[in-house]
Structures are given as structure tokens and as C-alpha cells.
Amino acid sequence: MAKGYWIARVDVRDTERYKDYVTAATPAFEKFGAKFLARGGTFERLEGPVRARNVVIEFPTFQAAVDCYNSPEYQIAAAIRQEVADAEMVVVEGV
User: Fold this and answer.
1) Sign (positive or negative) of CA dihedral 81, 75, 3, 90
2) Whole-number Å distance between alpha carbons of 79 and 54
3) What proportion of the chain, given as a percentage, has pLDDT over 70?
4) Which residue ranges make up each domain of the chain?
5) Is 0.90 topped by the overall pTM?
6) Does the CA dihedral 27-5-86-12 come out positive or negative?
């Protein structure tokens, strides 16, 4: 079964409140077996628009990645993130 990956591109508007998002999201990530492969860090723009923060999270399956996002635990965190950051997020099936 193929793994699933969240790819998120984020501009954080309130760094202090973003910490609340990270804390709130942790239980969902633990529950669904998330493994962070990239979490911010240095990047280089190659093409197109960019955001300041880039995150790649691996899940055991594509369905686990979708379920994590839709879980009540993560939706609490998402509400915080949506107040303090602008983001694009997708779930991608691994090969």
C-alpha cells in the first residue's frame, strides 16, 4: 500500500499563535503515524511563487494522510492555523 504525503506551503502571520497550532496538531500527527520529512528550513525558489515555510509529512498510507486532516483532533488545530497563517496543502500518494 502506497504511503501518503502532506505537502504544505505556509506563510505564518503570527509566530506566537502558530506555536499553539503545532501543539494542537501533535495528537493527530501521533494518532495517524505522521513522520516529518521537511519542516521549514532552508529552501531555494526554482520556479513560481513561494511561501516562507515548506512542510512535507509522510503517513503510512494515503488514507491515513486524508483521515488525519479530516480528524476532529486536526480540525481543532486547523482552525488555529487558518487564523494565523496562509497556506496551501495537498495530499499526495507515494509511489
Assistant:
1) negative
2) 19
3) 100
4) 4-41+52-93
5) yes
6) positive
Answer yes or no: are the C-beta atoms of 26 and 13 closer than 8 Å: no
CATH 3.30.70.100 describes domain 4-41+52-93: yes
Closest-CA residue to 29 (of 8, 2, 51): 8
Q: Which amino acid is at 76?
A: I
* Degrees to nearest 5, angle at CA 5 with 20 and 52: 50
CA-based nearest residue to 13, from 94, 81, 91: 81
Is the Cβ–Cβ distance between 85 and 11 less than 8 Å? yes
Is the separation of the CB atoms in 56 and 5 below 8 Å?
yes
Report phi then psi at 90, rounded to 5. -135, 160
pLDDT at 60: 98
Give start and end residues of each alpha helix (H) in 7-94. Answer: 15-31, 62-70, 72-84
